[in-house]
Design goal:
The protein is built from six helices and no strands. With 324 residues, the protein is mostly helical. The protein folds into two domains: 212 residues, Methane Monooxygenase Hydroxylase, Chain G, domain 1, CATH 1.20.58; 39 residues. The longest helix has 116 residues. It starts with 55 loop residues before the first helix and ends with a helix. It is a single-pass type IV membrane protein. It is found in: Membrane. One of its GO terms (biological process) is vesicle docking.
């Protein structure tokens, strides 16, 4: 069966692009002649997010779709539990065929949900704007809900396996009433698909009833193998989800480390800015002092020249008056 058999693919539509900082111009303020400090957490470049990151709305829509799939899985597990009972007590193969079909479609659904959660996890990793915390919370809640439902399904399959083994043991006791507990346990664990095992058990009782019972046990052995395979697949998916959580925690830790490093760099940069501001103010004060000194020098020169001309003219006038 292919993945497309259980539901439509919610990922056909291309992801929408998110804008990291909107359309406002951070440089539209009046010109400042002093250096400006950068607050921790502020992006000084205003670069937009990658085009393949889902918008918050698209992300929530996909989360909603996966939640609907998980609710559908819950209903399937309940139906499987009922068919388990019917298959154990039924005398025909109708319940068993319905059970096999439902288990196969449910396994496909499990795989599909897992793949969708992986896709959402990848989107969380690529998100760098303010929606990242929300996406992370949604991802963790969704992953936890799916793991919880998988755990319920796994427990149901394990209980069904034990009931099946008990049924095989009871049927073996019908064929061999004198069998010990160890022999019964070995019979429950035996590979009844093997012709040698079947013939060996048949030698102990060659009645028609024994042959029919052992034939039934042999036929049901395939179902026991199917149960084991289902449990293995569920355990594999469960392990994948645990890995997703571990990887996500590592990503968060790296993000926190990067944020801390960025804040440290910003603090160091702000210290340099403070030093630059202090130097700029000192330079400006020095310029004012230099201008004042130049002004005073020019004033002194002007006064000196003016006074010299004044006293020179006065001396000339005095000499002229004396000769007259």
């Amino acid at each position: 069966m292919s993945y497309s058999q259980y539901s439509g693919n919610p990922y056909q539509s291309g992801p929408a692009q998110e804008s990291g900082y909107g359309t406002s111009n951070p440089y539209g303020a009046p010109e400042q002649h002093e250096l400006q400090q950068i607050s921790p957490g502020q992006n000084p470049y205003g670069s937009p997010q990658s085009a393949n990151v889902l918008s918050q709305q698209d992300f929530l829509q996909r989360v909603s779709h996966v939640r609907n799939e998980i609710r559908s899985l819950t209903a399937d597990v309940q139906r499987i539990a009922g068919l388990h009972h019917d298959a154990l007590v039924g005398s025909d193969d109708t319940a068993q065929r319905r059970l096999d079909d439902l288990v196969a479609s449910t396994q496909l659904k499990n795989t599909g949900i897992r793949d969708q959660i992986k896709s959402l996890k990848s989107d969380v990793e690529r998100t760098t704007d303010g929606s990242a915390p929300m996406k992370k919370r949604q991802f963790e809640a969704l992953n936890g809900d799916f793991k919880k439902e998988l755990q319920n399904y796994l427990q149901e399959e394990q209980q069904y396996r034990e009931r099946y083994r008990d049924q095989i043991a009871r049927q073996y006791r019908i064929v061999n009433p004198e069998a010990s507990e160890d022999e019964v346990r070995q019979a429950a664990d035996a590979d009844w698909g093997n012709e040698g095992v079947f013939q060996t058990a048949l030698r102990t009782n060659r009645s028609g009833q024994a042959s029919a019972v052992l034939g039934n046990v042999r036929a049901r052995h395939n179902e026991l193998l199917r149960i084991e395979q289902s449990i293995t697949e569920l355990a594999g998916i469960f392990q994948d989800l645990d890995t997703l959580v571990i990887q996500q925690e590592a990503i968060v830790e790296r993000a926190e480390e990067q944020t801390e490093q960025a804040n440290q760099h910003l603090q160091e940069g702000n210290k340099q800015v403070d030093v630059g501001i202090t130097h700029a103010r000192r330079t400006r004060k020095l310029k004012w002092w230099c201008a004042l000194v130049v002004f005073l020098i020019c004033l002194a020169i002007g006064l000196g020249v003016g006074l010299g001309v004044y006293f020179s003219n006065k001396a000339k006038n005095t000499a002229t008056n004396a000769t007259q």
